[in-house]
């Protein structure tokens, strides 16, 4: 009986006011066997046909007459019921449309694609008189069948008005088709079409000069199983025609098979076996597998210093997970999804691992995802969105470098992978492990309150010491007449390191260095005409670009404000440092890694490979080299300017600085050679820098928590940031002040409403931007905020007004 599947609640692929709830559809008898919660379906919505996801199946309708589900799009639903549930929860907690949340969980190629097709009207009246161009169009459509509208419009003599005319006369139909962008890779295979005996007879009957055909038949006599056509032809040096004639004779047959793309095809990974664990690692391992074996949801913070062997613990815990027939997800920040990291997982688990990273093509990503959905692989490793890997029996979720800000998505749905992991962990009774040397302040706070178990790895493996860290006060350097980017201490250390034949990593925070263009006569800084932000200088093609809207202009010869020709422009920070190294240390070999040198596919990997092979003395780079790297010959780490991030208007500035410095320092002396770190700064006394240098993690978290408590910031409250934007300054002011007033009224006594104040970038893409902050602890506030926003949206009726909501803590 499938009567309980007669009604489907569908979230449709339409983002508009009023569509943020499921709509009921009737499930025709014929589709009841295939439809499931999580299925993608085609439905009519208004006068359109759209894609949607089934979020509930039942036997009762909320309305009398319902429109039918037109089609179920996949044999296996892309979402599991658990993921559907997760999506609806995300929509609610992230203030986004359910469809936005559901779409975020499937590969991009499955998202709806809509196109219009032209075909001949089924009730086309023959015998009517047609103009020659009409005749030609109809004739061609009759031959070729239904064609996309754009294609038809490109045919000679066809215009929009001609089509409109024929549609009105009921000779043509223009229809909307809903599909996706899925492409499948197919290959041709050949196999015998007859028995071995028949093949033998055919072989005997072939004339001796039909050499290739004889060879092909002998091949199948020895090995009757199917082979890819191209492989057969290559191995026998035969041409396609020989196979074709055997197919024509009915001896062989061709078939198409679908092949899953393998982004790592043809690459071998050195197999590795589990290492004997250190006592600390052993304790961490037991903390994980205990609840894993009991099938109990549990949360663990694995707080281990850099180089303490966290990854080995993950690997062995995953091994245990697989032994129990369950699956594991490992999240790593995109930038540390390095070839080294991938090799460690592939080396241990081989083809049981799917890797999801942004370098894959849409098709490759889809295929990796299907291997997960079908159970062909049991481990998924990837960046943030891999948290949605559609496993059905998760045992373990690992989030490596859990403090990384990239785990929070910046666009809708604005989810945090950590919160999603906890929710999935509960649903599957899985263990969630957050691993890092520098936990997020909120994670430490949660551990302190017993919401997570904290397990510490306090030592590097094999008794390797943590590197010695020196802090250099750059103000002092200037006072003593050193105007170089390099302090004397860093210069000396670099020189010594390289002369010993060892390697150095120099780290530069990209934001820190002047990349803008300045007039030295009047002080004007070149700014984007659409955003209140200075333009960035790009040396390679000598342009000024806006990193927010993409605006570009050539570098001016003279100042647009005063006409002076004393224009000073700076290369990107890393380029400047590279030049300085060339000046100070002629002959030193440098590999530069920044957005400019790594935007080509595979460049990242290639540069790291060359550094690992000893082709350079210095690796110079931005954030992207801060973590995950493990090179035995690196003994010096230099931080060019540590305090840049401290001055960002962000309550996490100190936390981020501490984390970054600790992580970069961790790159030095990880193997037999001992390491050294030099941190250059203008604020050596700041606790985030001082305590990072002294590796006094506990003191840092104590101090930071105290400061957050005093200033009332997360984790001691939760924070909403509402961003209002509009092309008109007056309109945005009005909306933001009105919202703040309403919110203060609605939340009085329950939350603190601050603002509106101009956003950090007060104008972007020609839109003025204001922010309102809400600090609260009471969960009901979230609902009230949602209500006020909806009210404002509905009342404003101004399509130009955009409000975005961001939740923190
Ligand atoms: N039990 C062990 N015995 C010997 N070597 C080990 C052991 N565990 C890990 N190692 C080695 O120690 C090095 C550091 O380990 P790993 O990279 O796992 O540390 P980590 O804590 O993940 O580091 P980070 O957070 O700094 O990236 C690696 O080269 C690893 O192979
Ligand atoms: Zn000027
Ligand atoms: Zn701009």
Automatic annotation (TrEMBL):
Residues 291-457 form the Helicase ATP-binding domain. GO terms for biological process: DNA recombination; DNA replication initiation; DNA replication, synthesis of primer; double-strand break repair. Binds 2 zinc ions per subunit. GO terms for molecular function: 3'-5' DNA helicase activity; ATP binding; ATP hydrolysis activity; DNA binding; zinc ion binding. Keywords: ATP-binding, DNA replication, DNA-binding, Helicase, Hydrolase, Isomerase, Metal-binding, Nucleotide-binding, Primosome, Zinc. InterPro entries: DEAD/DEAH_box_helicase_dom (IPR011545), Helicase_ATP-bd (IPR014001), Helicase_C-like (IPR001650), P-loop_NTPase (IPR027417), PriA (IPR005259), PriA_3primeBD (IPR041222), PriA_3primeBD_sf (IPR042115), PriA_C (IPR041236). The keyword Isomerase applies. It is an enzyme of class 5 (isomerase). Its EC number is 5.6.2.4. Pfam families: DEAD, Helicase_C, PriA_3primeBD, PriA_C, Zn_ribbon_PriA. The keyword Oxidoreductase does not apply. It catalyses: Couples ATP hydrolysis with the unwinding of duplex DNA by translocating in the 3'-5' direction; ATP + H2O = ADP + phosphate + H(+). It comes from the Bacteria. Its cofactor is Zn(2+). Belongs to the helicase family. PriA subfamily. Initiates the restart of stalled replication forks, which reloads the replicative helicase on sites other than the origin of replication. Recognizes and binds to abandoned replication forks and remodels them to uncover a helicase loading site. Promotes assembly of the primosome at these replication forks. Component of the replication restart primosome. HAMAP family: PriA (MF_00983). This is Replication restart protein PriA. The gene is priA.
């Amino acid at each position: 009986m499938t009567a309980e599947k007669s009604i489907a609640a569908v979230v449709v692929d339409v983002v508009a006011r009023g569509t943020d709830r499921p709509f009921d559809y009737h499930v025709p008898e014929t589709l009841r066997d295939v439809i499931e919660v999580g299925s993608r379906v085609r439905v009519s919505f208004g006068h359109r046909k759209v894609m949607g996801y089934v979020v509930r199946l039942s036997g009762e309708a909320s309305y009398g007459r319902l429109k039918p589900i037109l089609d179920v799009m996949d044999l296996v639903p892309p979402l599991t019921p658990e993921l559907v549930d997760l999506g609806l929860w995300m929509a609610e907690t992230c203030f986004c449309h359910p469809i936005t949340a559901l779409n975020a969980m499937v590969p991009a190629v499955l998202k709806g694609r809509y196109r219009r097709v032209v075909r001949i009207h089924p009730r086309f009246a023959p015998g009517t008189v047609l103009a020659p161009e009409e005749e030609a169009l109809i004739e061609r459509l009759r031959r070729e069948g239904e064609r996309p509208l754009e294609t038809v419009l490109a045919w000679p003599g066809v215009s929009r008005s001609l089509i409109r005319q024929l549609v009105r006369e009921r000779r043509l139909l223009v229809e909307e088709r809903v599909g996706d962008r899925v492409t499948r890779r197919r290959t041709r295979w050949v196999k015998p079409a007859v028995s071995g005996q028949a093949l033998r007879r055919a072989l005997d009957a072939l004339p001796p000069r039909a050499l290739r055909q004889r060879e092909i038949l002998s091949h199948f006599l020895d090995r009757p199983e199917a082979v890819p056509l191209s492989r057969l032809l290559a191995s026998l040096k035969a041409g396609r025609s020989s196979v074709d004639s055997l197919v024509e004779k009915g001896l062989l047959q061709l078939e198409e098979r679908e092949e899953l793309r393998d982004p790592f095809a043809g690459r071998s990974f050195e197999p590795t076996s589990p290492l004997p664990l250190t006592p600390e690692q052993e304790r961490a391992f037991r903390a994980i597998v205990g609840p894993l074996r009991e099938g109990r949801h549990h949360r663990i913070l694995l707080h281990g210093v850099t180089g303490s062997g966290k990854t080995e613990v993950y690997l062995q815990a995953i091994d245990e997970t697989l032994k129990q027939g369950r699956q594991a997800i490992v999240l790593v920040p995109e930038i540390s999804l390095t070839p080294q990291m991938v090799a460690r997982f592939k080396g241990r688990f081989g083809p049981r691992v799917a890797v999801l990273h942004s370098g894959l093509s849409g098709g490759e990503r889809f295929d990796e995802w299907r291997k997960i959905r079908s159970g062909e692989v049991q481990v998924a490793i990837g960046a943030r969105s891999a948290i949605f890997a559609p496993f059905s029996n998760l045992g373990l979720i690992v989030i490596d470098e859990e403090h990384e800000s990239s785990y929070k998505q910046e666009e809708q749905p604005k989810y945090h992978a950590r919160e999603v992991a906890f929710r999935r962990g509960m649903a599957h009774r899985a263990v969630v492990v957050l691993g890092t040397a520098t936990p997020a302040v909120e994670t430490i706070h949660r551990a302190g309150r017993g919401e997570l178990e904290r397990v510490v790895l306090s030592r590097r493996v094999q008794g390797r010491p943590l590197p010695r860290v020196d802090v250099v006060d750059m103000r002092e350097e200037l006072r003593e007449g050193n105007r170089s980017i390099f302090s004397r201490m860093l210069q000396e250390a670099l020189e010594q390191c390289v002369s010993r034949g060892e390697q150095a990593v120099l780290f530069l925070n990209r934001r820190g260095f002047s990349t803008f263009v300045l007039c030295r006569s009047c002080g004007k800084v070149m700014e984007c005409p659409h955003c209140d932000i200075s333009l960035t200088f790009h040396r390679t093609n000598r342009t000024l670009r806006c990193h927010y809207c993409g605006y570009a202009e050539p570098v001016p010869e003279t100042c647009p404000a005063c006409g002076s020709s004393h224009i000073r422009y700076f290369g990107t920070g890393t380029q400047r440092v590279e030049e300085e190294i060339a000046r100070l240390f002629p002959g030193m070999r440098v590999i530069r890694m920044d957005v400019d040198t790594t935007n080509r596919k595979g460049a990242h990997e290639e540069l790291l490979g060359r550094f690992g092979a000893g082709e350079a003395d210095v690796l110079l780079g931005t954030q992207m080299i801060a973590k995950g790297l493990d090179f035995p010959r690196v003994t010096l780490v230099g931080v060019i300017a540590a305090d840049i991030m401290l001055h960002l208007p962000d309550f996490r500035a100190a936390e981020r600085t501490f984390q970054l410095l600790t992580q970069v320092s961790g790159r030095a002396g990880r193997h037999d050679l001992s390491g050294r770190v030099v941190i250059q700064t203008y604020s050596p006394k700041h606790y985030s820098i001082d305590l990072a240098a002294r590796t006094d993690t506990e003191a840092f978290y104590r101090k930071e928590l105290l400061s957050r408590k005093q200033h009332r910031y997360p984790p001691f409250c939760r924070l909403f940031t509402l961003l209002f934007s509009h092309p008109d300054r007056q309109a945005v002011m009005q909306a933001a002040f009105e919202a703040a007033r309403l919110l203060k009224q609605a939340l009085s006594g329950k939350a603190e409403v601050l603002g509106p104040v101009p956003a950090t970038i007060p104008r972007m893409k020609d839109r003025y931007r204001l922010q309102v902050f809400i600090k609260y602890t009471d969960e009901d506030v979230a609902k009230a905020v949602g209500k006020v926003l909806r009210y404002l949206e509905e009342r404003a009726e101004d399509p130009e007004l955009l409000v975005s909501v961001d939740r923190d803590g």
